[in-house]
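To whoever picks this up:

The parser on our side crashed when reading a file containing two proteins. I've narrowed it down to the boundary between the first structure block and the second sequence. Both blocks are reproduced below exactly, byte for byte. First block:
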Amino acid sequence: MASVESSIDVNVPVTTAYNQWTQFEEFPRFMKGVDRIEQRDDKRLHAPPAGVPRRRRFWCRRPVRPALGTVGVGMTTAAGHTRHGAVTIAAREAVTSAGVCQPGDILGVVEGDFAIIGSDLAGVAVEVVRRMLAVGGELVTLVTGQDADGSLAESVGAVVHAEHPEGDTVVYAGGQARYPLLIGVE
């Protein structure tokens, strides 16, 4: 489990703190394993893995089909449909859109919104993925954090495979702090 090593109280409005935290291009300065993050527009980020990431592929059951048009057009279209989520652990009591959380609560984030408060890391992660897949998707990308249990991504991947056998799940060891699991669905 992640723990808070230090905390800082800042005397600024919540919107100011939030706006600073969402300066994603600054993440590589303090996030191990991330070389760069590019914010493509208000809803899309691109964070290529640092170096050569460890990659595992679970269940590839779809036939490979030739892309229609050029590869660039196909990739641009796919990137436009990518959604993001995460699982983190509350460091302090706070009011979220899902309700009031307490220190140690597991928080599920869907498209930047704290959508789930729970007590089971894998359970919250599965619920985040279910909500993200509810509007469609063929590829689930899981990026495990530095304190993530090795079975977390595998248990989430097993549920994805059971409920969406036509899809693929890819796991990267990201090593990021504060987020045991980052999730992408496209």
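<<boundary where parser fails>>
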Amino acid sequence: MWRDGKFIINGIVYEWCAKVYDEPSEYGINNGRVSKLEIRKNNRAVLNYDRGWDIKPDNDADIERIYRCIMCMFDTKFQATIKNLAKMMHAVADDCDTITDSCKHINEQPTTEDTLNDMLTLCESIKNTTEEVYDSVGELVSDLYDNLSLS
């Protein structure tokens, strides 16, 4: 399937089009789903991949950022990581809701040791989930700058 779009950075228009498959391919960039990609700056090709690199950009930070954004849109590993992060964030939000409900309950009734232990357990759960999210974000950033580089 062909996809296309444009970015505008500092008033400069960058247009792109990509041929993206449902599954990764040996012909894709980094063995991924994108088998063809062209980025044009002011209507001139500045990056082109057609089952191999034809044009690589000349150390242009804007083109590198655009390339990374496009690859992130279609990279299966990146998308799976984002979905996992979303699940973890939902778990944190659920834990926070539970703590809020517990706090309301504590205000309505005398505090017991069991209630405090329940709250400490929830706090520990939030801490652990937050650390998992932090680690996953670190891996995601690493993927963006290592695995999705122009190579």
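After patching the parser it read the second block fine. The mean pLDDT is 79. Helices lie at 61-74, 76-108, 113-145.
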